[in-house]
Design brief:
single chain, mainly beta, Porin
Length: about 180
């Protein structure tokens, strides 16, 4: 770099959405220190089918990397219990085979990390709560369909949400729609 040279990094605006169906489970205790880890207070949804989605907005740092902030939410039922909640998260996406060109440049991997809440209820009464849960997730997607600045394709991810009083797992299979725009 020469003296006086200005380095400019342009963020390309990106908006993403995933519409999904998921297999999910949650188990936990009321958010009361006197009831945590006592078997008589444990609530377990077992495996249930979840619906929900996620939305995030961010930018492209390079052709092969996006960063974003977003929201993911949904609900599911199992064992007579209803669970619902959501997370706010940071998201990093990489297209590790972008340099190969062709269909390879449309294959991406994602990592999310954030915080949220999850509430498990029986007949409208809360039986397990996860306020201020941590959430981490990994995924893969394939954005092969393109029209104008829209890109679309299948998406699969796994999300683990946890706190001292609650643990939840989600295997999400969905359809991704991304808008890429900018200078």
């Amino acid at each position: 770099m020469q003296t006086g040279e200005i380095v400019f990094l342009a963020l390309i605006l990106s908006c993403f959405a995933v519409f999904a169906v998921a297999l999910a489970s949650a188990s936990g205790y009321p958010n009361d220190v006197a009831k945590i880890d006592l078997p008589e207070f444990e609530a377990d949804t077992g495996l249930g089918v979840s619906n929900g989605g996620s939305l995030w907005i961010g930018g492209s740092l390079a052709d092969w990397m996006n960063i974003a902030v977003g929201f993911q939410g949904g609900s599911f039922a199992g064992n007579g219990l209803d669970a619902s909640g959501g997370t706010l998260h940071m998201r990093v996406e990489a297209f590790p085979l972008f340099y190969r060109g062709g269909a390879w440049e449309d294959l991406g991997l994602s990592f999310t990390a954030g915080t949220g809440n999850l509430d498990v209820q029986r007949d409208g009464e809360s039986v397990a709560e996860g306020e201020g849960t941590s959430a981490i997730g990994v995924g893969a997607f394939f954005e092969r369909l393109r029209f104008w600045q829209l890109s679309s394709g299948p998406d699969i991810s796994y999300v683990h949400q946890f706190s001292r009083s609650l643990t939840a797992h989600q295997l999400v299979i969905g359809w991704r729609l991304a808008f890429y725009g900018g200078p």
